Amino acid sequence: MRRHRNVKIVATLGPASSDYDMIRTLHEAGADVFRLNMSHGSHEEIRERHGIIRQIEQDTGGSICILADLQGPKLRVGVFANEEGEMLEEGAAFRMDLDDVPGDATRVNLPHPEIFEALEPGAALLVNDGKIRLKVEDCSESHANCTVIAGGVISNRKGVNVPDVVLPLAALSDKDRKDLEFVCELGVDWLALSFVQRAADVIEASDLANGRAAILSKIEKPAGVNNFDEILEESDGIMVARGDLGVELPVQNVPPIQKRLVRKCRKAGKPVIVATQMMESMIESPMPTRAEVSDVATAIYEGADAVMLSAESAAGAYPVEAVTTMNNVAIEVEQDPTYTQIIESSRETKGASIADGIVSAAREIAETTDIKAICCFSQSGTTALLTARERPRVPILVMTSRVRTARRLTLSWGTNCVMVDELKRFKQAVVNSARAALRQGYAEKDDMIVVTAGVPFNVPGSTNILRVAPCDERLIFSTDPE
């Protein structure tokens, strides 16, 4: 299924989008990647949705990417004697401690000793997505006496954010480790890792995945922003999760952080998703707000690989409309001449390898002559990612014999994956490229394409050949690729 845009759309599945007909409709409306949220749904439900996606993939003949999003450690307060909760007034004293006695208007249990170990006087504690803000006055390894800075009703098991300190918590909980093994055996393509604070978090997940899925680090904490360069180095991709970032940081800090992180990912040639609250009003409305449309457009103008829908497609009343609207916004933005100007002015090339030179030359040739597509052969995905990093003006056709590579690359900007047999000679690569370009409508008879590959074949990162070749419609009917 050919998309007439380069940015990809990630749609989260949930109660509103769990059967074959709805998921296929979402795919046909524009969803390239489906997100399975491990915070919701049993393993059996996840298995069922995974099976439906793979069936749709088989029925439609394309590659569909599946992203499993691990929950991460959840920090929550305990329960209150009053089940309706307590009102905390601004300026009042409030205590959090390890005592599991039900709370009242003066204190509550916080069953996370690791938080108390890291706290210092002056640190902030945010409850219920930051609606309640507490300032730590004094603390020990078993309690924190606080002053209420912003009040409100606090009730059972509301979430707690600790933005000012790096918590001595691993990104993977026991539940996450079980979920990770389950989805890797199931056959997902990407793992989204929550609560990433340091590079070591990514290394642990990568070791457990052991190549069965690529690792996407979610940047949702100040520590993740501060340690971003090291995290990016160890990650296969990044998600800018703006929801929690907007809770733990001043909201005005989030847009410039988003821009910086997207630029760094583009330079590194690693996929980056911009996520959270992109069209949140469409949970209940068939139309987004103008501000939401501008938000999606901004991420696309920045050159993000993908934009993501969460509750809009998982639990909203208008999941198909949300995907359709995002698809339409993407097409419109990418047709804007300003989009091309912004993308090209923000292009940065990292590295000076032969492969870097080849893909850069392919893009320059395509943009200065009448080239219809760049066709790259990529078994590991490295060449395709380098080509996508260039953000060329023409379509990118990725030839691979590995279905796992094709699925993972579906997340990357501009990639259109075509399954081919393993190759032994570069001439076969040229013939297969011309066939694919003609069959899928990227080129017509005698149009020119650029073909890149690495010889010997099947060696990751060995891109060393570039050829400009004509398309010949007779290739479609030829049985001899030699």
Walk me through what this model shows:
A hairpin with a 3-residue loop joins strand 8 and strand 9. The chain is of the alpha/beta class and 482 residues long. It has 18 helices and 21 strands. It has three domains: 8-73 and 170-338, Alpha-Beta Barrel (TIM Barrel), CATH 3.20.20.60; 86-161, PK beta-barrel domain-like (M1 Pyruvate Kinase, Domain 3), CATH 2.40.33; 354-477, Pyruvate Kinase, Chain: A, domain 1, CATH 3.40.1380.20. The protein is elongated. Helix 5 (199-209) packs parallel to helix 7 (228-234).
Task: Summarize this structure briefly.
With 482 residues, the protein is α/β, with parallel strands linked by helices.
What is the CA–CA distance across the termini? 28 Å
CATH topology-level fold name of the largest domain: TIM Barrel
CATH architecture of the largest domain: Alpha-Beta Barrel
Which stretches are low in confidence, meaning pLDDT under 50 for 5 or more residues running? none
Strand residue percentage: 15-25%
Which bin fits the share of residues in helices? 25-40%
